[in-house]
Structure formats: C-alpha cells, structure tokens
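Supplementary material to the annual report.
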Amino acid sequence: MVDTKQLWENCLAEIETNVSKANFSTWFKNTAIVREEQGTIYVGVPNEFVKDWLANKYQKLILKTLTSFSEYVRGVSFVISKHNQKSSGEHGFESKILMHRELPLQDLYINKEDNLNPRYTFENFIVGPFNELAYAAGQGIILKPGTQYNPFFIYGPTGLGKTHLIQSIGNAIKQKYIEKKVHYVTLEKFAIDYINAVQSNKPNSFKEKYRKYDVLIIDDIQFISNKEKTQEELFHLFNALYEQNKQIIFSSDKHPNYIQNLEDRLKSRFSSGMIVDVIEPDFESRLAIIKAKIQEQNLPITSEVLEYIAGSIQGNIRELEGSLNAIIAATSLKNRELSLTEVKNLIKNNIRPKKNVSVAEVVKAIADFYNLEDKTIYEKTRRKEIVHARQIAMYILREEFNVSYPLIGQKLGGKDHTTVIHSCLKVKNDCKNDPTLAEELERIKVLFK
Amino acid sequence: MKAECQGEKIKDAIIRADRITGKNLALPILGSILCIASGKTIKLRATNLSLGLEIEIPAKIEKEGVCAVKGIILSAFFSSLSKNETVILVGEGDTLTITTKTNTVVLKTQNHEDFPTIPFIEGEEIVIPHKTFTEGVKAVCYSASFSDIKPEISSVYVYSEGEFLIFVATDSFRLAEKRFKVKGIPEGISLIIPYKNVIELLRVLPEDNDELLLKFSKNQLALVLSGLYITSRIIDGVFPDYKQIIPKEPITTITVLKQEILQALKVSNVFSDKFNQITLTARPKDKYIALFAKNNDIGETTARIEGVIQGDSIEMNFNYKYFFECFQSINKESVVLRAHGEGKAMVITGVNDTSFLYLIMPMNR
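Predicted assembly:
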C-alpha cells in the first residue's frame, strides 16, 4: 500500500513547479487522492470541468510525477468527489464536524406539535439493573401502545433519566406509528394551558386539544398537588383517553400514594396500570453511562479516570454528566489526556461531601421539622409528639447514618439499646402501613442530602 | 481561420456568451470566448468553471480554425453593431480581424490551447417545455439561501412526482414551491442546481423556444436548445425533506386582494425596524387584517386591508422582505394566507391555485 496523502502532497509540490501559478490554483486546488486500486490512483476533483481538463491536459504530467514517487503506480483516473472542498488532514476533519453540528435545520425540524426533543432516543439510553424494569415496560408500550401498560407511571429521584425514558418512548412511537399523535407536556405547562383556557373563556378548546392525542406524556406530575381544578380536569381527561385505549404516561419524583393533596380517585387511577421506579444506578451502570458518553465524544480518557468518576459521583446521572462535561471540555482544551490528579481537582466541587453530621445536628434538624425545641428530645418525657420525634430521630440515625444502637441510646438521653431497636422497628413497620409517615420520612431524609 | 456569418446572430451569441465568462479569476483565459470555426458553423464557448456554454451559429467557413478573444471586448464591439450586416472573421497568428460593412477591428487573441473544455455529459434525458423550466425557476429562486455554508439549500431543487415537475427553494426561513403538470415526465428526477448558476442560466436562456432538452448525470446538468448548450454543475446531495414541515390544519384562513396587501406592505416597509419586522393581526369579527410596523426613529404605521377571515384570532410577526417577495410568483388576484398558530409557519397561496405554495416562518420576538 502507498501512503496516498503523502504521495499526493509530494506530487502536487512537483507539479506546482511545472505549471503556472494561476493554472495550479485553478485546477489542482481541492484535489486529493480518494482511493487506490491495483496501481490505479483515483484523484478526487471538485467538478466536471476540472475532471475533463485534468484528464485531457495534465494526465501525462500527473502520471509521470506519480510514478516518479511510487513505482507501484500504473495509471491515474479522475472522479468527482463531494468532500474535497475541505483540505485533507485534521483541520479539514474538524471543520467538517463543526459544519455537521451547525448545519441541520434545527428550527425547521423541532416539532412544536408534540414538544418532543428528538435528542432523547433509546439509542443513547443506557439500561442497567436500576432501570431495566422501566425500560422493559417502555418497550412493551411501544409494541402495544394503549393496551399493554396503561397508564404507565414512572417515579424516582431527580436526574435518573425519567424524562429521557418517557421522551424516548414518545419518539419511538412517533417513528413506528406515523399516524399516532404523540404529545409531551410538563405538568406546569398543562396547568398553565388550563388556566389560560379558563381565562379566555374557552375551556372546550382545552379539552379538545388534549383529547385528540393518541399518546399523552405528562412529566413531573407531582406538581399537581394543591391544584384542585387542574386535578379535576386531568381526571376527566384521563377517563376520556383511557376509555379509548389511548396511552398515558406519567413521571413523578414520588409514588402516587405519596403525592401530597392528590385526590384519591386520581391516585387509584395512576396506580391502575403499571408503576415502576428507577433507583440510583450502581457502580457498573455508572461506569457504562460514562463510557457511552465518552464514546460519543471520542476522547482519550483512561479507564482509571473513568472508574474514579464512577466511584466518586454517586446517585444522580445528571451530576455525573456535568462532571463529565467539565472533563471533556478540559481534555479538548488541553488536547491531551488528563491525569487522575487533574481530574480530581476538576470535579472536586461536584462530589458531594460524605455525610458527616453529628448526632446533635440530626436531632436539631428533626426537632425543627416537628417544631420542637431540640433539647426536649433528650429529656425523659413521654409526651406523644416528643416520643414520635425521638423515635424518628433514632430511626434516621440508624438507617441513614449507620450509628450503632448503643451509641444512639447513649446520645439521646441515656436510653437502653433495646429501646432504640424497638423504636427503629416500630418506625419501620409503621411506615409500611401509614403512607403519611413514609412521606414524612422522605421529607426528613431530604434534609440531609 | 476565416468565416462569414450574419451579424445579428453572432451579436446575440456573443452577448449571451459574455454573460458567463469568468470574471475576477486567477485564470485570465476564463474571461475569453472561444470561437471554433468548423464544418458549417461557428461555435462560441464560454465558461466560468461552474457553468459552461456553447452556442452554435450557422456560417460560411472558408478556412477552419480556433481562436480565443476577451469576451468583454467582443461584446462591447458587437453591441454597437447595427442589424443585418454580414460579419467576416479572420484569424491569423495572434490576431482576429473582424470586418463589417462599416468597421474593421483587429483584436489580440489568447492562447486557445489553455481554454478549458466544456463537459458534454452522457446521462438521462428528458424534454420539457422551455417555459416550464424558466417559469418554475423564476417562481422559487429568490427563496434560496445566499450562503454557501449548506450548498443543498443555496440551490433550486427540481424533482418529479407523479405527473408533476416540482421546483423548490428554501433558506430555512421561508420556502417556495412551484409545480407544473408535465405529460409523461419520468419518475425519479432529482436535481439540485446551485442558486448562482440558476440566476446565470436565466440570463443566458433565450425567451422564446418551446422544447428544452435536459440531460443530467450525478454531478452535471446540461440544457440543450436549438444551437445552444449550457451545462452546470449540480449538487450531489439530498435536499431537506421539506414536506414534513408544511403544516396541514390551518387555524385561521385569510383571503385578501393581492394588490391591496402589496400596497400595504410597501407602506409598512418604510416603517419597519432593522429586522424588517411587521406584525399581522387578524380577528374574525373584524372585516380587515392589520399590518403594523414600528421604527423608533421614524414612527409607526397600521395598514388595514379588507378581507375575509375565518377561524381564530391571530397576531404574528414576519420579516417584511420574506412576505413581500412571494407575491411576484402569484398570478391570481386574491391570495389566501393560512396561519397555523403561534410560532408555526404561515402558508400563502393564490386563490384556487395549487401550483404555487409559499411557506413563511414567523419571527419570535
């Protein structure tokens, strides 16, 4: 094989001395060797004019020059190639990428009708143990929209790809069934739409608008709490769509039972189809996510660094992406691999400090939550509200911070460790039967994040 | 060489050929017209390496030969030529002597060996009415993008569908589509002709001819008329699938007289700001639409145009220029504007006219 790029450069340098400058820049600029087959060199040229002229006028010269550099060459032929406007080499490659990034007519193609972001697809969705159930359910919905899992309710903490999943479902359905009308809306937008419709005295236009969709995706449904009229409207809309076997998809950050001030009839309806949760990804899934992102960018990052990122940033995928973007930016800026120390420095702010709270602080926060003075928790009293708060504090200390039973007992006013064990068990069992308590616990846990 | 021909014919040919000689190029020979005297004709060739042209005129050839002369000088001389004269061309050494009844000029020639060849292409052929091509191109070409960044859309797209030949151009802010019924048009025609070449083609193509032969290969297109051969580079690419952006269900339909809206737009232009923005308001209960334009330095204007409005009320902003330009392609007295809601494109057509469609994106300001 011949190094065609080098060969052509040598050849051009030689030809340049043989023809006038004007001729050279007119006919030889933007040419390149596109391929080489059994000794025949194929030279890519920008258009038919150049092709004709080179073939008629310069064929001999080019062939002679080529053979003088490489004995291997037997013939030369000219073809019109699309991409030779850009000079070969890295620079050309870069500018090509840049152009591809800028060129698509984004404005024209983003469909305002369905609000779906074409960026969210299953191709770039990473499946791991933390979300495989949700993913499988999503695939089921795409196969049989409206009948398989209807409604589909997905919940989980922020930044774990809920929006990505439900938008991907929308995009996939749109692609598979061209006639189906898909619509993605956030609850906030839905509520605003409703308010506007009421305000302009056209509630029917609102009803009609949403009832014509075959697939309705509502994101962040938890914000519906306290919006009574919107809930009512959603209830009717739900019934109308459900009756006609139209697919409905919701996402939320909590289980429907824990959404505050949600009417029971909605709760039960949300729960009537398929409810899945996504949990925080494990180490392997995080590593897979990072690898996939890196592959998109095609950057040199060592596996050591990747594992460090996966190990140090836990939980939220969005934060993971943020740190990764910082690293990608720094790598392309410095144009070399980053060392582990550099990476550590770069993302040190993104890593959540390990929870390092004192017992007193936990007790204070919980006391504040229940509107009590923190010292009452330590007192020997059996007032109901204080006992409750104390038990919660014990439970949280045990479950969230892994403090030993005897230590908890000692810190909270010299209780026996069996008392602590009892309290923890009690809270655990109670919250299974009492959604209000479970929700309380969720809200308290958030305080320590 | 020595040749004799009719003044009027060669004058016309030279003037056409000079239009596409290459200007401001590194290669001076491109500014020349190549004259080839052979058989019973003189062939005049010119090219700018994007377009190539050959015109054949009948002549009496006494001695065959070739010469290349600066196009600008030839056309300057021939444009002063009065009608019905016989012209004698004599090429000798590095000069060309042109003799008419009243004049004799001696012109320096250039080395004709350097003159580029013009590609004569082999490929598919179709015959369409000449008018179809020129009208189709004229109806849409102003919508093409001027920028070279994306060659596919700084072009006019010509394709066939069913028994229609369709011309499209867009710069992503507006889109014009013109369709013609052409009998027996084959399926699968798809040509992307660069905008700049299209403009030149229109200038070079004569007005009156009924049949135009199109030949095309992957990279090149040729138009053949009697005695005239023009070839243009075409773009080997894919035109955006524009059909999916044409909205289907209008929420507001407005019918107005074309002349009135043109008048109103002319006035609005005086007042529009540096973004050329005008605001169109239509309410079904009124019997008119309003065009509002405001410029902080000049003042503001509201033009009211009587019309029929059906559907919802709308208020949308448009670039005056994009709005105005489409009316040249509508030859009906009334035009229909179809709005599809805020932030969505508006479609403009003539009343009962499905041959021309214009789509304009609103400004979101």
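The longest helix of chain A spans residues 48-69.
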